Amino acid sequence: MRTVTKSSKLANVCYDIRGPVLDKARQMEEEGQKIIKLNIGNIAAFGLMPPDEIVQDMIRNLPDAAGYTDSKGLFAPRKAVVHYCQEKGIRGVAVDDVYLGNGASELIVMALNAMLDNGDEVLLPAPDYPLYTAAVALSGGNPVHYVCDESSDWFPDIADIRAKITPRTKAIVVINPNNPTGALYPEPLLREIVELARQHQLIILADEIYDKTLYDGHVHTSIAALSDDVLTLTFNGLSKNYRSCGYRAGWMVVSGDKRHALDYITGLNMLASMRLCANTPGQLAIQTALGGYQSIKDLVAPGGRLARQRDLAYELLSQIPGVSVVKPKAALYMFPRLDPKIYPIEDDQQFAYELLAEEKVLIVQGTGFNWKSPDHFRLVFLPNTDDLRDAVGRIERFLATYRKRHGR
After folding, report:
1. Cis omega before residue 127 (within 30°)?
2. d(CA 111, CA 176)
3. Is the pTM of this model over 0.90?
4. For residue range 249-296, what is the model confidence (pLDDT) as tens digits?
């Protein structure tokens, strides 16, 4: 009975990855129809491959990768993560504070499983990355969404966060750089969040998986670097910055004041042991990746592939009547708004379904990211410029037809 209850709760807070839109996409592909997929940040699918030195290092070490490792992971990659924390200004991190996982996703779920009792609350951004909302619900907690303000570059609304803190609030999730909006939070804003966490004894969960995918010379600040006393869990990995989604190589770092969190850390250690260890080949890629040439800088620099695609997608979308979008400062996504006066959408999943059926373009509806109004969608700008121009052209054509249908 408990499993059924959790499953039902989960279905209410996370868009179904096997829902009608993706079912339709699979059917169309089985029929031989070509779909332009703007729905997921699966980087390798768009020809962006991991650095060759990572691949070669994994190949060389693969014969010795058949056994289990320590439950927290191999020493060398965990030590490399410690050095990375030092570069980011995160103080007081030792090897024992680093957990390697099958992607950051596994560690996020583990962290929330160990943290939450039934009815505990976690503050999450809206829009969110739906894994967090689902993991909170799966752990018996209640996800409480704070507003990110589109008119302020999608920055979190500090007053809204403050108003939603209750005696049951255990933690706050900060996704920076942000998926799905592409926002990058400035240091003064992060300090305000740290102060709220300090005042209310909240744990900060910091998702920094895109911390190197930065445009226009912007610099990322790790929120864990801004305090020594607030317990902070920082999540990162190779999936995005190193184009290695399938390697499932992620890490979690526990920093801040750990003296009052010994029971929690014991729980994390138990859960790490229960899954035995993260996959060994993925672990082997971490040290080489962090210590090698950072080719992501070439991709995000002016004229680099990702920068060109971001600029093109922003330009093309901004030209469509009734569409507005905040230009991303980071990550791989943008979250365009459809003016409800021009596009009176009541069901944005149906909107995404019709776009797929009519134009063979796959996007994710905004409500899939726990955005309450059906007036946004997320677009991934990973396709090369020709495919991206084609895709946005199809979206523009579909929206023109939509306006005619509704007399706009």
Report:
1. yes
2. 18
3. yes
4. 999 999 999 999 999 999 999 999 999 999 999 999 999 999 999 999
